[in-house]
C-alpha cells in the first residue's frame, strides 16, 4: 500500500473534498503540517506513523478541520480586508504604476512585512472582477491600456522603410546586448492617427531612462535630425555610445546626427520591432499620456519633460523594481 495524499484502496472517504481521517492513522498527510509519509505493505507503516506524530505533532482530526477551513471558497480579497495595503495600491495606481510594478515595489519597500504584499493578479481582479471589487473601477483608467474590460494583447503595427547607407543592427557592439554598459539607446516616433504630428522617444537600454523629442513643426528628416542631436547633446559622454532606430524615413539625415553628437547609429531589420524592445515597451506606456488619434502638437516641450520625469519615476521589474531615475543617478555617481 502506497499513500501520498490519495484515496486508500478499500477505505471509504468521508463526504466532502478531503479523505484523510482514519483510525488508526496509517500515514502522515500533507495538510496542516506539510508532511507526507509513505509506507509500503512490507514496511512497518505503523512505526512510520508513530515517528511522524512524535516529530511533527500531527493530529488527523485537527488537521482535517484546519484543511477544510483553508479550502473554503470564496475567500475575501486581501485588498478588501487590508485597508492599509489598499491605500498604497490606490495611491500607486493613481501614479500610473502597473500592478506588477506595485507588487514588486512593495517587496522592495517592505521586505520584512508579509502583510504588505499583493500579487499583480489580485490587483487586476480587484479592478475588473465585480465580486472581488475592492478597488474602484475608475482606477482602470490609470492602467497602461486604460480599458474597463480585460482583453488579450495585440501586436503593434510595423513599418518597412529602408535608409540608404545605414549600419545594420548586426554591427551593433556586443556590449549593448546584455545591457552591462550604459549609453546604448533605442529610438522611435509616436505618430498620431492622421500622420500629422509626432513625438520622438529615446530609451536607454541599461537604466530604462526615457527622453522625449519635441517636434512641433513635423517629423520630416530636416526637423527630426536637429531635435535629436540637441537632445542627445544634453547627455554626458558616458551615456552617448550608440543609438538604434527603425528604418523610418525620418532618419534619412542620420549621418548628420552621428557626426554632430559623436554617436554610432544603427538600424533594425524590417518587421523586427523586438530589436528595439525597450523602446517598444516604453512607447506603449507613453500612450497613457498621448492616446492614439490625438493631436500631438498641443503638447509643449515642458509637457514632454514632465511626462518623461513621471515615467522615469516608475519602478521597473528588470531593475529589481528600482526606478530608472535612481539607476541613472547611481551610474553618474560612480
UniProtKB/TrEMBL annotation:
<dbReference type="InterPro" id="IPR051917">
    <property type="entry name" value="Transposase-Integrase"/>
</dbReference>
<dbReference type="GO" id="GO:0005829">
    <property type="term" value="C:cytosol"/>
</dbReference>
<dbReference type="GO" id="GO:0004803">
    <property type="term" value="F:transposase activity"/>
</dbReference>
<protein>
    <submittedName>
        <fullName>IS30 family transposase</fullName>
    </submittedName>
</protein>
<dbReference type="GO" id="GO:0015074">
    <property type="term" value="P:DNA integration"/>
</dbReference>
<dbReference type="GO" id="GO:0032196">
    <property type="term" value="P:transposition"/>
</dbReference>
<dbReference type="InterPro" id="IPR001584">
    <property type="entry name" value="Integrase_cat-core"/>
</dbReference>
<dbReference type="InterPro" id="IPR053392">
    <property type="entry name" value="Transposase_IS30-like"/>
</dbReference>
<dbReference type="InterPro" id="IPR036397">
    <property type="entry name" value="RNaseH_sf"/>
</dbReference>
<dbReference type="GO" id="GO:0003676">
    <property type="term" value="F:nucleic acid binding"/>
</dbReference>
<dbReference type="InterPro" id="IPR012337">
    <property type="entry name" value="RNaseH-like_sf"/>
</dbReference>
<feature type="domain" description="Integrase catalytic">
    <location>
        <begin position="178"/>
        <end position="332"/>
    </location>
</feature>
